[in-house]
Each structure stands twice: as C-alpha cells, then as structure tokens.
C-alpha cells in the first residue's frame, strides 16, 4: 500500500480482525497479489499487490480523525471497514489479452477504449453500500485534500468500477488544478504538481484504501518516475 508498513499492518489487523496478520501466512500469488487462506480454504480478496517497475507509488500519511472520540467511532470501533480496491487492466497484444496490469493510466480515464481493457468495469464497486463517502489525498509536500463524492447511482445502486475510477480521476484532476500554483514544502520540491512538474499524464490510479468508516484514500503511482 501507499500508507507505509506500520499503517498497512494496523489496517490489515483491523480489517481481518486479528492481533497480528503475519500469523496468517500471507502469500504472494501468481497474479502478484498478496492474500491469505481463509477458514473456508479459499484465498482472501487481494490485500496488496507486488510493486512493479512502472514508477514510485505515492507515499501518503494515513488520514485519521482529529478527535480521539472520532478515531474510536470511525476506525477503532468501526464494523464496516472494506477490503482494499484495486483497478486492473488487461494487457492486450494484437487484440488478445496477454496478462493483467495493476493501475489505470489517469490520462486514459474517460476514453471509450477503457471499458474494453479494464477488468470487470461493470462490477458493482464494493464501497459498503453508502450513498456518499469522502476521498482524501495527502500528497507529499501539500496540505490534505478531502472531498465528498456520491457512490450510488440515480437508482440508489452502487456505482460500477468504471464509474468509480472516473470519480477518482476527477478528484485528482481537481486537486492538481487547485494546488498547482500553491507553494510546496521545499524539501519535497520533486513532488510538485502542475505544468513543468507532475501532471495527470504522469499518474496511474492503482486503487483505494478504506482508512475510516467514511473515508478512502486513493493509491497513486507515478509513470516513469522513481523517487527514493
């Protein structure tokens, strides 16, 4: 995940309902996903994916409520935490799928071709059945950015995965538009966004992580940039 090993450990323990998820023998599967075997003998949903070489995954601080009581209510005592969501795309060779890649090029979101290559674009997004939720981005060097988004359609049904990735893309694009003229922490100047720096054309949308009962953080990856 993009939230650091300590936060990932805490989130997985809470999600699975165990004191130490490492005891579950989480394994890397052939599709490069990390899963554990449940009591029914079946693999769990993907907890994470092996990092590939497309570029650096944007490291974020994990969003937490400001007040201790809210932390208890929206995280510690929450019973509706959802599995991480990942966006997969088929690697096409001469019109034939030849594998799957994790992450969708943000610049391609909204193009008609995405429906043809995205894995399960019409699957209901597993967001917990709420009407709205919040997306939060804590990009290095900038202030936290948080917006409410609708996650049900006009028929009060969960939006589809394709629609979800479109909502995330608009959220990220709006953030870039708003902060590109704002100063960035000079120690993190290489993370600057806007013209001449990182734009939507340099980003993949990898997935979403549920960090509290009403907040998700997008997992973003740079395209061709490797920061260490």
Would you give an account of this structure?
There is one protein chain. It contains 4 helices and 11 strands. The protein is an alpha+beta fold and 228 residues long. It has one domain (52-222). Strand 1 (27-28) and strand 2 (33-35) form a beta hairpin. The radius of gyration is 18 Å and the shape is globular. The two termini are 16 Å apart.
E-strand count = 11
Radius of gyration: 18 Å
**Count of spatially separate domains:** 1
The helix content is: 10-25%
| SS element count, helices | 4
State the shape. Answer: globular
List the helices and strands and how they pair.
Blueprint (H helix, E strand, L loop, with lengths): L4 H12 L10 E2 L4 E3 L12 E2 L18 H9 L8 E2 L1 E6 L2 E7 L1 E2 L7 H5 L14 E6 L7 E6 L10 H19 L23 E10 L2 E8 L6
Parallel strand pairs: 8-11
Antiparallel strand pairs: 1-2, 2-3, 4-10, 5-6, 7-10, 8-9, 10-11
Short description:
This protein is an alpha+beta fold. The protein has 4 helices and 11 strands.
Features:
single chain, 228 residues, three-stranded antiparallel β-sheet, 4 helices, globular
């Amino acid at each position: 995940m993009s939230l650091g090993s300590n936060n990932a450990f805490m989130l997985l323990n809470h999600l699975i309902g165990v004191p130490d998820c490492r005891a579950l023998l989480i394994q890397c599967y052939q599709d490069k996903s990390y899963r554990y075997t449940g009591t029914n003998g079946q693999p769990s949903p993907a907890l994470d994916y092996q990092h590939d070489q497309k570029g650096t995954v944007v490291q974020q601080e994990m969003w937490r409520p400001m007040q201790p009581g809210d932390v208890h209510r929206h995280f510690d005592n929450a019973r509706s935490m959802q599995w991480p969501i990942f966006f997969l795309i088929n690697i096409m060779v001469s019109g034939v799928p030849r594998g799957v890649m994790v992450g969708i090029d943000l610049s391609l979101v909204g193009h008609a071709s995405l429906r043809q290559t995205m894995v399960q674009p019409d699957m209901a997004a597993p967001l917990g059945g709420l009407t709205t939720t919040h997306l939060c981005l804590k990009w290095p060097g900038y202030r936290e950015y948080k917006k409410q988004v609708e996650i049900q359609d006009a028929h009060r049904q969960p939006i589809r995965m394709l629609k979800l990735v479109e909502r995330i893309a608009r959220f990220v694009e709006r953030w870039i538009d708003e902060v590109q003229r704002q100063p960035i922490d000079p120690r993190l100047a290489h993370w600057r966004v806007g013209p001449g720096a990182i734009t939507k054309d340099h980003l993949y949308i990898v997935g979403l992580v549920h960090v509290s009962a009403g907040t998700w953080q997008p997992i973003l990856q740079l395209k061709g940039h490797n920061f260490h």
